[in-house]
Amino acid sequence: MRQRIAVVGAGPGGLTFARVLHRLGHPVVVLERDRGPDARPPGGTLDLHEGLGQLALDKAGLLARFRAVSRPEGQALRILDPAGTVLRDWRPHPDERANPEIDRGQLRDLLLGPLDVRWGQQVTGVTPGDGAAVRFADGRQETFDLVVGADGAWSRVRPAVSPATPRYTGVTAVETSLDDVDAHHRDLAGLIGDGAAGVYGVNRAIVAQRTSGGHVKVYAQFRAPLDWHAGLDLTDVEATRRVLLALFDGWAQPVRDLLGRGAAFVHRPLHVLPVSHTWAHVQGVTLLGDAAHLMPPLGAGANLAMLDGAELAESVAADGGDLDTVVRAWEERMWARAARWAAITAAGLDRLVGPDPAAALALFDEVQPS
Length: 370
Ligand SMILES: Cc1cc2nc3c(=O)[nH]c(=O)nc-3n(C[C@H](O)[C@H](O)[C@H](O)COP(=O)(O)OP(=O)(O)OC[C@H]3O[C@@H](n4cnc5c(N)ncnc54)[C@H](O)[C@@H]3O)c2cc1C
Prior knowledge:
Blueprint lengths: L4 E4 L3 H12 L5 E3 L13 E3 L5 H7 L3 H7 L7 E4 L5 E5 L10 E3 H9 L4 E2 L4 E5 L4 E5 L4 E4 L1 E4 L17 E2 L2 E8 L2 H4 L1 H7 L3 E5 L3 E7 L5 E8 L13 H11 L5 H8 L5 E2 L3 E2 L12 E3 L2 H4 L7 H18 L4 H30 L4 H11 L3
Parallel strand pairs: 1-2, 1-11, 2-7, 4-14, 11-19
Antiparallel strand pairs: 3-6, 4-5, 8-9, 9-10, 12-18, 13-16, 13-17, 14-15, 15-16
The chain binds flavin-adenine dinucleotide.
């Protein structure tokens, strides 16, 4: 008899898991708290790496379609100093395919395809066992042979396997966005280039990233206590802008304008799970993606979530024997990969938002092709 499998969360990790299982002919239930695919703005852009996110899409049979919609030109990267001087200006070769960018919404639509997601399903917890019981906010309960927690940083599945909770890194981010930059903010479009621009100062940075259609996401990143905004109403756009601009006092005007012209501000403090987060295997429940290994957002999280999902789906579908033995073996492989990336991204965050801007520049010199 086929195993009953559920995945909680229709993010990049959960959807890749479900899509690969679906491709391999195995039924899967996707439980997502959002009321529909367009219930909230999908967010910015993701760069998918050749050996990670792109490999996962290949396993899902979606690589060619990814290549058709992704933006290789989005791999362009400029590094500036707070005076506005361009220190580095990398432009990808036209056939460079190492890390093309894709909008989160485009990726979600690509992965959704024929999947039958159960929207509006708020999971409150899972009770493990021979038949793991998923509990819902409306009091219902449903039992599966395997429940995969792909429900992100604040996972409600995680407590079934691990007591770990995310810890604040000491770095916060405030996101804003600009629309139609090529028509309405041509000076800023020129500053950003075709992909992303990062400006690195002492313990703070401003990063601007193009998504498709002339949109730009801008992130102000700085070291601050978690309650840095006490007394500030973050929905008061002008008050928030004043506070942010004061943090970047003395920076060149075009760089400040990236914040100065933003429409609204969203607070995104950066949290992480421990670098080597593992757990004693629990029958019928596992985690993948941010739920298992939340790390600083330095271009790895969605890639890892997707490869976790693709590989777990392959393992489960190939299994002729005991589901828990298969999941346990996959967890060992997933933990080892995640720990390597968690260490890399933790060290990266220290250099990018740290006391020595030269360390940030050196980091880019190490990872960019010359
Ligand atoms: C600003 C920023 C930029 C980033 N850029 C990149 C990048 O370029 N490349 C990269 O690889 N990574 C990037 N990341 C990291 C990446 O976004 C995450 O690592 C990735 O989204 C994790 O995917 P996931 O599927 O594990 O979880 P998520 O994307 O968080 O998805 C979890 C899903 O679970 C649902 N859910 C949550 N709780 C419940 C519940 N109780 N019941 C039911 N459903 C629930 C949520 O609604 C959501 O749909 C970035 C992150 C940030 C913040």
